[in-house]
Amino acid sequence: MALQGISVLVAGAGLAGLVAARDLSAMGADVTVIEARDRVGGRVHTIRDRFTEGQHGESGGDMIDEEHRELRHLVASLGLKLKPILRHGWATARMDEKGRTRLSAKNALTAWERLAEALTELTRQYRLTEQRGSSPIAADIARRSVSQWLDDVQADADLRTTALAMRGFFLADPEELSLLALVDQYASNGIPGIPRNYRVEGGNDRIATALAADLGTRLKLGTELAAVSHRGKTVRASVRHRRQTQQIACDYLVCTLPASVLRRIPITPPLPTQQHAAIATLQYGRATKSLLQFSSRFWRVPGKPRAFGSPLSFGAAWDANEEQRGKAAILALLAGGSASDATSALVEREGSASLARQLEWLGSNRAQLLTAHHASWETDPYARGGYAFFDPAFDPALRGWLAQPAGRLFFAGEHTSLQWQGYMNGAVESGRRAAAEVAAAHRLSNRG
Fold this sequence. Notes:
By secondary structure, the protein is of the alpha/beta class. It has helices at residues 15-26, 69-77, 108-118, 120-128, 136-142, 146-152, 157-165, 167-170, 179-188, 205-213, 259-262, 273-281, 338-350, 353-357, 424-447, and strands spanning 7-11, 30-35, 46-47, 57-58, 64-65, 82-85, 90-95, 101-103, 197-200, 219-221, 223-231, 234-241, 244-250, 252-255, 267-268, 283-284, 287-294, 307-309, 316-319, 329-336, 369-376, 388-389, 409-411. The strands form 6 sheets. Strands 8-7-18-19-20-17-21 form a 7-stranded mixed β-sheet. A 5-stranded parallel β-sheet has the order 10-2-1-14-23, covered by helices on one side.
């Protein structure tokens, strides 16, 4: 085996870390995985103990797209099944002239298409660079916020409303989000929501628990990375468990922690200047995910969408468990950017019922709110945000440095993915990539 007798420490038991550990173990490495939380999965978190009728909902990573091939292959290899969801697409909800929330005649796809048309020339220029962040074209686009671009093109109210609704996708307000993030989305993945969507039957966390099952005592929960020293052929990691610190020596370290957490960990000697800057300046979106269980599925209309985008303070809303049985049902709300702030404040002040009242346009007054779960990911000390986003201050030339190995240190996580940043698929691909990089680097060192 390529890594027989080699020790690797993996920091983080989210999808990236667990997949990296699986691949490294298959190559013969002696793998230890540490995770600060008392559970695996990271920002993939299925809530099971709060809802009636044995139902569950996704508090974190939720939808799996048709194009997420690496993730879908992983699910199949673990003997899990995918269930199709949201087959009727997305509708949009907006305020009318009287301040009442109404379903718009334009669906979400139409709104995204109009935005794509307005960005056609910028997307064409960016594709000419083959999406290189080091190009002056990328730098020029990146320095503008979406809000500034809307002003530059004298966007009408409809286009501005569409951009604001994207808080539920990018987790950032138009004034916070780099225009390059929007252009890159169209250049790389096209219009979101077109592919078919899925969830794992029984809950997305089954991916993480299945991966963790093979680790046994090599998985250390409640254990966080405190400091790293890498010199010569040895990596030394200081890890904390129940207020006690110990040292772990290993041949390689794979770090899958979000940049928002990684930048707080001392690394000696320091990472290269560009890599340090990339990790230090990467932003993470504010995101409050709410799961509301009602006594009936009032939002369901045969042949009509079960998912709704909006620029309103509750964010986006969608059927969170249409693949599950029971009379009761769960509706998911995702409020991004300043909408996350507003949702958190509202729930703290007036309770979960206040969110249900905001959905009366959808029919929430025809059902009883049974229970609710809320997660504001920016308050999670091991995430410090929903997922990464790029603001106008982030230099796109630094993006590749987020995944750049540094000596015997290797990096993974959704934030390191070029095509699937922000997705579970990005985490899985990055974990596999980091494991393969360890093997390749080890072969190179032996040849040297």
